[in-house]
Write a structure and sequence with these properties.
By secondary structure, this protein is of the alpha/beta class. It has helices spanning 17-25, 43-50, 59-64, 67-75, 93-101, 114-122, 138-141, 148-159, 180-191, 214-217, 237-247; strands spanning 2-6, 28-31, 54-56, 78-82, 106-109, 133-135, 164-168, 170-171, 176-177, 195-200, 208-213, 227-231.
Length: 257
């Protein structure tokens, strides 16, 4: 059996009860933290809290050579861990399909994600979000500025009045995390006065939510990672009220006709 377990958003306690039980009963436990990580807990914290040994795999050890994981799942119960949810954004469906093709039973234990937190913390309705996108570091996509994949997603959603969730680049192997002010500065070159919402440290005891023009957000410091941005589309009056109350949005940016 191969069980995919989401660890949630922040620390060793963010996992669901079902996930905790599956993790603690596994014969071997694997994890990857190259797509994201828990900023409130180290691997050692996870091991100590749950009483397990965790074998951390790099990208090659998951995507190109997962034999250790698959072999453990054939011989007994193996758990595979990621921050957030293992199948939302941090998707490992390829690994699951490889297991299924070898006759290995699989299951998924879901957990909170940045996607659900962005809606819950901002008050923006989840069904009014369009296509999400990821804003990479300049060096990661080989050019300066914002790639077309990001502007196309923003423009397409805005034309339809939909909100856009912008994930910010993570290079966990370099301990490098794009900050919301840096991201806002990049986007402000094309969308200077557009309303955006920063969500920082979702899932932590003290998350931060701030709404303002992109140009204004670019000049602020939002503290420790992880950060993400939401660029709202057309606002329902309840969403406008939420951004005023929960994100301290300037009144003129959330006026609803």
């Amino acid at each position: 059996m191969l069980t995919f377990i989401g660890l949630g958003l922040y620390d060793e306690r963010s996992i669901t009860v079902e996930g905790r039980d599956a993790l603690r009963s596994a014969d071997r436990v694997f994890a990857e933290f190259y797509t994201s990580r828990l900023l409130g807990a180290s691997v050692a914290d996870l091991e100590s809290h749950h009483g397990v040994d965790i074998e951390v795999r790099d990208r090659a050890g998951v995507e190109r050579d997962p034999e250790a994981i698959l072999g453990a799942a054939e011989d007994g119960d193996a758990a595979f861990l990621t921050a957030g949810d293992t199948m939302i954004s941090t998707t490992h469906v390829d690994l699951r399909l490889r297991a299924e093709s070898r006759g290995i039973d699989t299951r998924v234990v879901h957990a909170p994600t940045a996607e659900s937190a962005a809606s819950g913390l901002t008050g923006l309705q989840n069904y009014r979000f369009g296509k999400a996108t990821t804003l990479p570091f300049d060096y990661a996509h080989g050019a300066e500025g914002v790639p077309a994949s990001v502007t196309d997603a923003l423009d397409g959603n805005r034309e339809r009045g939909l909100h856009t969730l912008v994930y910010l680049d993570i290079k966990a192997e370099r301990d490098e995390y794009m900050t919301a002010d840096h991201a806002a500065g990049l986007l402000a070159d094309d969308y200077e006065d557009v309303l955006a919402v920063v969500v920082a440290r979702a899932g932590s005891p003290e998350p931060l939510v701030v709404a303002d023009r992109l140009s204004a957000l670019a000049d602020r410091d939002f503290g420790d990672p992880l950060h993400l941005l939401v660029v709202p589309g057309d606002l329902h009056h309840v969403e406008a009220d939420a951004l005023r109350a929960l994100a301290d949005s300037p009144e003129e940016l959330v006026a609803v006709e």
